[in-house]
Design brief:
The complex is a heterodimer of chains A (227) and B (410). Chain A is of the alpha+beta class. Chain A contains two helices and eleven strands, in the order αβββββββββββα. Chain A has a five-stranded antiparallel β-sheet, with no helix packed on it. Chain A is flat, with a radius of gyration of 33 Å. A five-stranded mixed β-sheet of chain B has the order 8-7-9-10-11, with helices on both faces. Classes of the chains: A alpha+beta (227), B alpha/beta (410).
């Protein structure tokens, strides 16, 4: 009987606590204004090393800036091309691009790189609801020449030929950086080349050994675990 | 068990607190006349306007452009009121009007807008009225102690400024130069004041103006109720007379205030006569209120003569002789003795209380019956008058019983 009464009493106490907690939560929800989350705008690029005169994308990701504006400043030499953002919410003047924000979370715009050089992308944001403003962390972008591919063929190989067709991608035509008397040849499709001699069967053996090693490890692990 | 019930109630409360939607305007099903009529449209307009204002601000502040833009504090206020604001209309003078927050303090140099504001249940926002409104204690009893801001023709700027208005309602098609002067003077004192140019006495703009004011004042539902009533009375008249060819329309001579002073051009009375199927014999004249030659009236030989009376009759008298005397004077003019209207005794007098202002639809009903008695046997302008006063003006229909407005009524 005493135990029953005690259990009943505990239950009552627990219920009271639960009710008080719920009431407190309700009051908190009513009385406490929504905590302002920190506003930030971050910038990323489809590439930070664009080729000369190529176009690349800039993405602005917006956190907690619901109504306001963002103004990007492009480095000298870089040119604004276009944006997927609504046209009535964008204005361009020189190196500056202004964006009106009403609940958007991302802005994407396209820029054309110069023929060479580098620069800093900077920006600011202004939130009209909180009355605050801030800067967007700067990013550096550098124009980089695309790598050139050189293929050398040995003249000392024996006369064993295997017909192989290799198609090399033709890169975007670019001016060469060094004014050499002999220009680097543009890679062209190769229809045949000389291969060095290989030990017959060596590859098969090495594959078998590798497989055996894997099986040993697997079974060893299983055997080790069995009791 | 009791505890469970309490917990259940608290849970319901939490659910309600977290899910109560913002105050939203109930959707209206009226065809769009360019005025947003439901929450989605209101939000669309708000977004368009807010984007425009943000871009102007950014262009001026960060791009160095010479662009007119809102002050930052007003822009912030607009942002905080989104998506219910900003709101935008084109008023009856063709001007773009934008508001960024709820209207709270209106002054009315245009006194004809007050009955519309009454119909919209928005008179609590009025903080100053013109002297004619104050003097008309019978029709505007609640404004008798309000600040007197003068009139469109003699504005009291000091009193207007003392009212601290955020909105001023002026005429669109009446005394334009005076209204321009008022706007120019007040804007220089307080550039944040909004000016709305509407008439509220013309049938051609009544519906659109009521709808626009309803949208600006967040009284969309009330506006539609008023419009339903207004159109419900007039549209059947329009539908009936639309089928009457022009050559068969009743020829009317309208006389305003004094002998041989008529209405034509853009005059409201001319418009009202023609809308109910009348053929104004001086419709070709371009001046709004020209004086005409008696011989010309005789030559035109109207079938009906209507005399509009300003001081004779109305809400403030029950003496019908004020109107009957006017009629007798016209009937006894020797030069009109052979005019069809006089010979057939189709000479009527109508008081401006039901022919001008927002109550004009009542007068139009009477005129329709006079012009085409066989078509409008069931039309009851007096019943419409009573309903207008009680349902949309907050007044007693004793005003109908105690006043005289037309003579003869049939």
């Amino acid at each position: 009987m005493k135990r029953l009464m005690s259990e009943g009493g505990n239950k009552k106490v627990k219920m009271k606590v639960a009710v008080l907690l719920l009431a407190a939560m309700c009051l908190f929800a009513l009385a406490t204004p929504v905590m302002a989350e920190e506003i930030s705008v971050t910038r990323s690029f489809s590439t930070t090393s664009p080729s000369p005169n190529s176009e690349f994308d800039v993405m602005l990701t917006i956190y907690c800036l619901n109504i306001g504006g963002i103004v990007e400043t492009l480095p000298d030499g870089f040119t604004y091309v276009s944006t997927t953002y609504p046209s009535d919410q964008v204005s361009v003047s020189g190196q500056k691009i202004a964006f009106a924000v009403i609940n958007e979370k991302e802005i994407r715009y396209r820029v054309k790189a110069p023929s060479s050089g580098s620069g800093m992308f900077t920006g600011i944001w202004e939130d009209l609801l909180s009355g605050t403003d801030g800067t967007i962390k700067y990013n550096s972008v550098s124009v980089v020449e695309p790598p050139t591919i050189v293929v050398e063929l040995s003249t000392e190989l024996p006369e064993i030929t295997v017909p192989v067709t290799v198609v090399m991608p033709t890169p975007t035509p670019t001016p060469t950086a060094t004014p050499a008397p002999t220009a680097t040849p543009t890679p062209t499709p190769v229809t045949e080349f000389h291969t060095p001699p290989s030990t017959p069967g060596f590859e098969v053996a090495s594959t078998i050994v590798a497989l055996l090693a894997v099986c040993l490890l697997a079974f060893r692990g299983k055997g080790g675990n069995e009791r | 068990m009791r505890m469970k019930g309490i917990i259940a109630c608290l849970l319901v409360m939490m659910f309600l607190i977290s899910s109560v939607p913002m105050m939203s305007v109930p959707a209206a099903a009226h065809p769009d006349t360019g005025v947003p009529s439901n929450p989605d449209e209101i939000k669309t307009v708000a977004r368009t306007v807010l984007v425009d204002e943000i871009m102007r601000y950014l262009r001026a502040t960060y791009l160095g452009e010479m662009v007119k833009h809102l002050r930052r504090d007003i822009l912030r206020e607009a942002a905080s009121n989104y998506p219910h604001y900003p709101r935008q209309i084109t008023d009856s003078a063709g001007r773009e009007v934008r508001i960024y927050k709820p209207i709270k303090r209106i002054i009315t140099p245009n006194g004809d807008c007050i009955p519309v504001l009454r119909a919209l249940n928005a008179t609590d926002k009025i903080v100053g009225v013109n002297k004619y409104t104050i003097r008309n204690t019978l029709f505007y009893p609640e404004f008798s102690n309000y600040p007197d801001i003068g009139s469109v023709w003699s504005p009291d700027y000091e009193e207007m400024v003392c009212c601290s208005p955020d909105t001023v309602i002026l005429y669109a098609a009446f005394s334009k130069s005076k209204c321009e002067a008022i706007e120019s003077t007040l804007s220089a004192i307080d550039p944040d004041i909004t000016f709305i140019w509407v008439d509220c006495y013309r049938p051609s703009s009544q519906v659109e103006e009521a709808r626009k004011l309803g949208y600006l004042l967040e009284k969309e539902e009330e506006a539609e109720k008023w419009i339903d009533f207004y159109e419900g009375f007039l549209n059947p008249i329009y539908d009936t007379v639309d089928d009457i060819p022009e050559e068969n329309r009743t020829k009317v001579y309208i006389e305003c205030w004094k002998p041989y002073h008529t209405a034509a051009g853009n005059a409201g009375w001319h418009e009202k006569i023609e809308l109910v199927g009348g053929y104004n014999i001086f419709r070709e004249l371009t001046v709004d209120y020209p004086d005409v030659d008696p011989e010309n009236v005789t030559y035109q030989n109207p079938e009906v003569i209507i005399r509009a009376a300003k001081t004779e009759g109305g809400y403030d008298t029950s003496d019908i002789t004020e109107l009957s005397n006017l009629r007798d004077e016209i009937m006894n003019r020797p030069e009109l003795a052979n005019v069809t209207a006089v010979k057939n005794r189709r000479v009527y007098v109508i008081n401006n209380d039901i022919f001008g202002g927002t109550g004009h639809f009542v007068g139009m009903g009477y005129i329709a019956k006079w012009l085409y008695p066989d078509f409008f046997t069931d039309l009851n302008p007096e019943a419409a008058h009573r309903r207008y006063l009680t349902e949309f003006q907050g007044l007693s229909d004793n005003l109908v019983d105690n006043g005289v407005f037309v003579y003869p009524s049939t």
